[in-house]
Amino acid sequence: MRVFVSSVMQGFEAERAAARRAIELLRHDAVMAESFGAQPQSSQSSCLERVRSSDVFIGIFGRRYGQVAPSGMAVCEEEFEEARRRGLRILVYVSKEEKEANQVAFLKRVGDYNNGYFYGSYSTPAELQERVVQGLNDLERSDTGKKTGEEAMRQLQSHAGAMPASRHQTSLVFSITPTQKLSEVIGPKKLGEDDFHEQISQLLLFGNKPRFFDASLGTTIEEGRDYVQFLQKIDGRRGTFSSVCLYSDGSVVFGCDLTGPERGMEYAMMLSSVIDSDLTRVRLMAAIQSTAQYYQLLNDHRLATFFALAELRGVEQKQFGPWPSTPPKSMSMPTHQLGNAIYATDGPIKVSLPQTLEGVAIASDFVDRWTRIFKAAGAFFTP
Fold it and tell me: What's the pTM value of the predicted model, to 2 decimals?
């Protein structure tokens, strides 16, 4: 695990060294400002970036509130807020000494947020080291309540089975589920609430770009026994659909066609025979980033790591690759034995909430894997 350590620097050398010893004793990676070296951006921007890429946040808070950033918050409070927003697992250790008034106010806010965080105290660096070891061990023991990759695969396949499918229309399915074994993340009452439906619709239509839904189209909402589905659909010759299913167990399934925008009759042959890898990447990014925004909206500390799976459907006798800016005058039509559905990976991959917030790396990795699969089958499209 990557463990970020947050505290004031001056006068806290012994405490920070104790935290590092505890982290490295358990063979985790200590992410600490002392090790960053020269950075092209500001030191605080660099620290926040390191928070985003970590799995666990350890806050060590003593008497002083610390240096105040332009935001009006101390650097440590900014880092804590970033960890909280990103869904990192959080351990907080507070020294047994009198605090400055603004530090007392900050620690009260930390306590108010104490939604599953470990919050302890210490007197000496040696005691702090013991507490950090204990806290990290407790986190690892909590991992025993997690799904295996095989369990996650069965669950994701079951949920994705209800997604609309056509043998001839190529579609993308991205599904994700928490690694924790959770029977219920969203209760039946909330699944049916109009306010919840409105929040999700706004996220899908007007959230961070690239967006999964088209803001110019209407949205249909359908409810099942343990899920709610948001759907956009256009029937006709170039029928399209975008669908998002939110399950009570915290799983999410995104599905959409890969038809792409209208480009004229000269692209008709490509439309029926070539899957656009660039469009696939963009749609995956939209699904992944929408997932991250959704989990942030739920604000449940248990939703920190996930299993994710990506599938292409309707690929029989089709090629895969980037569409050219001008259509080719002729095309070869190779045959392949890949079947009609292809997973990018042999099983679900494990991702963290910070990784889903970026989205680009995960989407590109899936597309790169499909590229290799189609190349190996002699079905990669090159103009």
Answer: 0.69
Q: What does the alpha-carbon distance between residue 133 and residue 145 come to, in Å, rounded to a whole number?
A: 20
Per-residue pLDDT tens digits for 305-341: 899 999 999 888 888 999 887 777 666 666 777 888 8
Cβ neighbours, 10 Å, residue 300: 18
Give the architecture (CATH level 2) of 2-144. 3-Layer(aba) Sandwich (3.40)
In the chain, domain spans? 2-144, 149-376
- CA distances 77 to 59, 172, 229, 358, Å, are 9, 40, 38, 22
Q: How many CA atoms lie within 13 A of 145 on its CB side?
A: 10
